[in-house]
Amino acid sequence: MLIEHIALWTHDLERLRGFYCRYFSARSGAKYHNPKTGFESYFLSFDSGARLELMQMPGIPKDSAAPQAQRTGLIHIAIRLGNPEAVDRMTARMRQNGVPVVSGPRRTGDGYYESCILDPEGNRVELVA
């Protein structure tokens, strides 16, 4: 069994697509647009075969939860960068570019070396080794 893809709602489709393409070398498929509903989406593909669907549509409310608050449901996406040095470099690059860093880099109790950042929509993304 394989998780086929994960989907995220956004209020700025192009900005979120640019973020994942810029920092994680995601490859974007063509934009899908349903003129009847206003739904638009992109599928982003990563070298590992994982895919992320970014979606926007009029009427989708903003998430009222604070981005750094823990809550039930999907809480983060983890992207493996390869080694601790890569996590350090990417975290430093993102911090320098104004991307919010929630935690780390650090070694966790379960053995990961990670940091956690927020994408432009406030979704948590763990950078792991």
Model description:
The chain has 129 residues and is α+β, with helices and mostly antiparallel strands. 19% of the residues lie in helices and 35% in strands. It has helices spanning 13-24, 84-96, and strands spanning 6-9, 27-28, 32-34, 39-45, 51-56, 76-80, 101-107, 113-118, 124-128. The strands form two sheets. Strands 1, 2, 3, 4 and 5 form a five-stranded mixed sheet that branches. Strands 6-9-8-7 form a four-stranded mixed sheet, with helices on one face. Strand 3 and strand 4 form a beta hairpin. The chain is globular and about 50 Å long.
Query: Taking Cα atoms only, what radius of gyration do you get, to the nearest Å?
Result: 15 Å
Mean pLDDT: 93
- Structural class call reads alpha+beta
Task: Tell me the number of helical segments per DSSP (H or I, 4 or more residues long).
Answer: 2
Count of beta strands: 9
Poorly predicted runs of 5 or more residues: none
Strand content: 25-35%
